[in-house]
Amino acid sequence: MKEYTKQEVAATIDHAVLKPEFTDADLKEQAAMCIENAVFSMCVKPCDVKAAAGLLKDSSVKVSCVLSFPHGADTTATKAFQAKQAIEDGVDEIDMVMNIGKFMSADFDYVKNDIKAVVDIAHQHNVLVKVIQESGYLTLEQVAKACEVSYEAGADFVKTSTGFGPGSATPEMIDVMIQTVGDKMQVKASGGIRTWDQAVAYLEQGADRLGVGSTAAVLNGAEAEGDY
Q1: Is the pLDDT at 63 greater than 80, yes or no?
Q2: Catalytic residue set
Q3: Which residues 6+ apart lie within 8 Å of 198 measured at CB?
């Protein structure tokens, strides 16, 4: 079994700075932590993209942001506008929430077109798109279907959870994602990753990226508190 170094794990982490109560000072502090640990990206709220891009400007850390977070219930036109805005503000990757209600209604064409509207804009600017399923609402069969819809829409990644919905990433979900689209898309485990062992287990399983809120604690091998 591969022994992961702290640097190798850090290089797969999108560090989440998404709590509604986070301030500008928190953003600055989190950016410094991201740079110090050389994580892959800092994932911020749409209103913080511009500031994050400034704070991370001279580092290797990319800027990612959530879109239509956490319920995915914005109109398709709103999502497309949010994508444009984020790109203008300097984002490198977008983590969009699929329309969960439409998916649960089995309106898969709606969900696909909704994702595609964001993908089409993002890909014009070499910005990657991750689709958050909020897998805690879904059966494993539905997780597989959501992966297929995301692939058909042209997205780059499938991702488990927002960290604000029910449940969190599980090995079973990641298994289904990898089996369904792992050969043609990347997979991000997100939500509930609070320990070094959990992080490494997902990477060993084949996840490409990790969404973590308590990054410093995870990288230092400590158990983290809180939901994300």
Answers
A1: yes
A2: 95, 159, 188
A3: 192, 218
Residue owning tokens 């079994």: 1
pLDDT digits (tens, 9 = 90+) for 87-114: 999 999 999 999 999 999 999 999 999 9
DSSP annotation of 11: T
Whole-angstrom Cα distance, residue 149 to residue 6? 34
pLDDT interval class at 228 (50, 70, 90): low
**How many angstroms separate the Cα of 83 from the Cα of each of 64, 155, 159?**
11, 13, 18
93: CB partners within 8 A, 6+ apart: 14, 41, 62, 63, 64, 65, 127, 128, 129, 130
CATH number for 6-219: choose from 3.20.20.70, 3.40.1080.10, 3.40.50.2300, 2.30.29.30: 3.20.20.70
Q: Are 148 and 181 in contact (CB under 8 A)?
A: yes
* Res. 223 pLDDT band, cuts 50 70 90: low
C-alpha angle 209-140-214 in degrees, rounded to nearest 5: 35
